[in-house]
């Protein structure tokens, strides 16, 4: 047991030292404080291999589940909760999170000492609109708008104590891990985590880093709706077993909207195989609905809370709690009375009806519709072919959301075989069991997910354009290549700048890394062929290979470059800017016209 | 500056090249890509030497790859694809055959993507009847892609490089390049070996 423990620690150190390069200061490593409960030696014997647990870290809530040998079980904390609030309070010397911490009142969370919504901040730079939207949260989110990591701090005894999204997430994960270890009576190391569809590969490295800080090893990061698709595949498989049915292909549209993100997936399921045909996602969610509503109730909210003083934070928190409560009530009633005393003499007394709520958030709902249509289009699926429409996540209770999803899919009823808040974590637990090589005598783990790339990956070329090499919704593993050429005569160097995203211009996408090809033999522009190949392997590792060929030459002109990405760290906003400043367009490339 | 002074073929997409009124030779795929093919031959041989399965598969039609008759229906294609995914997806691969399985799965995926799209399938069938038996060189015509011959050689080239890299990384990070499923199986194996 102790050997296993030290092994974990070594890995932790390794990953820390590995990823601290270029980050300035190393962040503290968090380890589980109590080691006494980890006495599950007999359970981790080869006869009963360690089953990876599934974790769903939501923007607002978090849950943890495991395959218990015959079915999926959600773990509960000491207060018998399956859903735990995703936040960390920096009240005392030792920070505590929503897993173990007992809140006397929700308002405590809004005193400036609690940090939440980390999933919206992790891996984002301070020029990101999502970061800017987070500035109205009741803790400090400061931006310099130069493309670096935002400054985040909690108010502790009238001192702003700085932290990072990774650190907050790690503290929270340590608590989750300790809770699971206590209950399962064995050490936990391997996890399957769900992530939003719109997360870039850079953001994934941040999640992995937070896990490493918490001593967890990420077996797989699974886009949330694909976890739901896996659960659906298992349910369909069971139905087939029971009915001895033919097991024909079923198309499911999965719409998952939580507090921070909205994700759509289309899956084709047959015989336990869940083939992801399309993914679409965006950083819109309940948080946006809430903020729009708060702004509706208090139009001068920005100027009022600009100072982030203790009193402002408190009133902002009060308004937040009252508005949240009102939105919840609007799921079951058509109007709600809001009555909140913000202190400093201002009060809000207002009746809000559901029409107002829908009008205020019209843009968000339109975006949801667009995501569904985009996903259908990408997957080349006709609405009539959809077997089931699955609606999950916290926002699935909102009548407007239910209606718009049903409307687009032309369905009278939604799939009712899942608990909306548990579907993703259950899927993650299934994946954890399958990935751990567990087999089930009844074939309940006889499952396979064929994943697709949620975002396009490509390079900067043809001026300031993003040219995808692996397009969005390409089945993984994948390898694709494109030929580029030089833009100037005797151009001997070229910059390969790799981005991920959907925007046409590079700045609309996430920078993943860059490298320079040098030693291109002097030739007129347009002559050297620069073949850029992208490869996503079985473990979702992205590699970019670049080779140079001169027509007539029997060999590649220079050794092929191979780069594992992402290579950027938190200063990546600077990097793109600096590259542009230093090189301008001198090292540009353009695509070679595709032949008929 | 006139492009023609170089007397070279310009593969560029830029219309400027063609509006200069010079004797620019229009891009001719076969001619232009010829040197490329030559350049990678040595690597191809090397790659095939180390991996016989590539050679077996490249000669197969998409129908043969999926194991269905040329008259196969769409449900049959989908069924065959899912069956083969269960067989060759790297997630179900034995730990020591990840690369081979990955390659096989990608081929199956290419076959499935072509045959499950009626338009692409029709073009593929047309090419096949014209005698372009090589599934992978026939695909190019309607994929707007670069020449497949070159493509597969390019792949072989970097695949051999990749396998070299993986061999190296096996020592320092024995599990880093495996699929997560394989990692677990490996872990299990290691564990039982120790006991």
TrEMBL record, chain A:
UniProt key word Ligase: no
Signal peptide: 1-26
This protein's record includes keyword Methyltransferase: no
Domain of life from the UniProt record: Eukaryota
Annotated keywords: ATP-binding, Nucleotide-binding, Signal
Record-linked InterPro entries: ATPase_NBD, HSP70_peptide-bd_sf, Hsp_70_fam
Gene3D superfamilies assigned: 3.30.30.30, 3.30.420.40, Actin, Chain A, domain 4, Substrate Binding Domain Of DNAk, Chain A, domain 1
Family in the record: Belongs to the heat shock protein 70 family.
Protein name listed in UniProt: Heat shock 70 kDa protein 8
UniProtKB/TrEMBL annotation, chain B:
Bias kind Basic and acidic residues: ranges: 186-195
Pfam families the UniProt entry points to: DnaJ
Residue span of region Disordered: 176-195
The J domain, residue ranges: 61-128
Protein name, as recorded: J domain-containing protein
Organism: Xanthoceras sorbifolium
